[in-house]
Amino acid sequence: MSVLDNIYEKAKANPQKVAFPEAENEKMMQAAYECGQEGYIVPILVGDASKIRELIAERGYEESVFTIIDIGNEDYKNDIIAKYVALPQTVLKEKALGRRMENPLYYAMAMQAVGEADVTFAGIDNTTGDVLLAGQMIIGLKEGISTVSSIGLCDIPGFEGSEGQLLAVGDSAVCTNPSAEQLADIAISACDTVKGLLDWQPRCAMVCYSTLGSGQGELIDKVKEALAIANEKRPDLDIDGEFQLDAAIVPAVAAKKVNRESKVAGKANVLIWPDLNVGNTAVKLIQQFGHADAYGPMLQGFNSIVCDCSRGAPVSEIKGNVIISAVRALGAKRDC
Amino acid sequence: MDRKELESQIIEMVAKCYSVDAANLSMETTFKDDLKGASVLMVGLVSEIENELDAMIALQDAAACATIGELVDKVEEEL
């Protein structure tokens, strides 16, 4: 069974409530409909209810597949606002939230924050920046995490790693030039993400051009500092380094270069890049030369699951990402 | 609200969001070099301004301000 088949099965066994604030968008509505009709999620369309109903009919979908939330319904909106402002550590007060909720993206996230939805899925009409800002403002970041970041899941034909062909890598999409503190947070979030989605025991390697002091310089110093911070913040996680990529994933190379005990060297299932120049290039190398499928980017660091898709994404890709985000939400609930 | 009052309110908000002493802040304090905060702190500041002053500043506009003084200018335009 492929990794996606496994994830799809988990989604079907326990469908999560996914809010779609870009409900009128044709591709988004189709993806929401197919995911809902096939039993992977409970799709919630958030927006102008009469317009949404009109489009559902026009496009020939069964309305019963969806839950429709009308952002013009003042009673429901006020109920969400009251629950939201009663939550600890929220940044917006009643009036400011009410105004923000005129935008369906913020409305959906406020629903998620109070438990009326498990995931907000957007990004086809809104920019990544819009989604990240709304996520940070309404959902907030996990305690102790200072940055939003992302990981991708690579399925690499012929790769024989500790999880078979699969390897999680991050951050290849969001955090451009992380400080040591942010790099530590990316590693911690990545471990939590793979645990939630794949049930892996994460073995996370901080990679760069040095293995345990074989190289020197400020670029390596940052990675070492990040490792120290990550280990101090989360001693329960197996995060180790600094390793070159081969020492992280190839047991024979690790045996040669890593002359100390390590739960990670040679068998890492999560790789953390030192910055986005490396991360973005590395993923493209894996895709181009390794002929890999790369799933994601999966946003991480938020209090609950926020998902951004590419604005040019086809329906099939949107569906895959919706289902992955639903399973992440399920995993996050379980790990709470 | 006059300019001085606005400056003093925003300095208090910056101090709260960035966990620094307001006495060490001025209109010339820079976000990048002096405060060195993560972007999430700016999100908190923008939210605080929205809550307390009823001025909705886009995050990208706030993030483009080099100093607290420039941010006050932006808020003043919105009020």
TrEMBL record, chain A:
User: What's its catalytic activity?
Assistant: acetyl-CoA + phosphate = acetyl phosphate + CoA
Q: Where is the Phosphate acetyl/butaryl transferase domain?
A: 3-326
Checking Gene3D superfamilies in the record gives: 3.40.50.10950, Isocitrate/Isopropylmalate dehydrogenase-like
Give start-end of the signal peptide.
none
Pfam families, per database record:
PTA_PTB
Q: Which residues form a coiled coil?
A: none
UniProt keyword annotations, A-Z:
Acyltransferase, Transferase
A single GO molecular function, which one? phosphate acetyltransferase activity
Transferase as a keyword of this entry, yes or no, is yes
The similarity annotation says: Belongs to the phosphate acetyltransferase and butyryltransferase family.
Its name, as the record gives it, is Phosphate acetyltransferase
Report the source organism. Answer: Pseudobutyrivibrio xylanivorans
Automatic annotation (TrEMBL), chain B:
Where is the Carrier domain positioned along the sequence? 1-79
The protein's name is Acyl carrier protein
**Phylogenetic lineage:** Bacteria, Bacillati, Bacillota, Clostridia, Lachnospirales
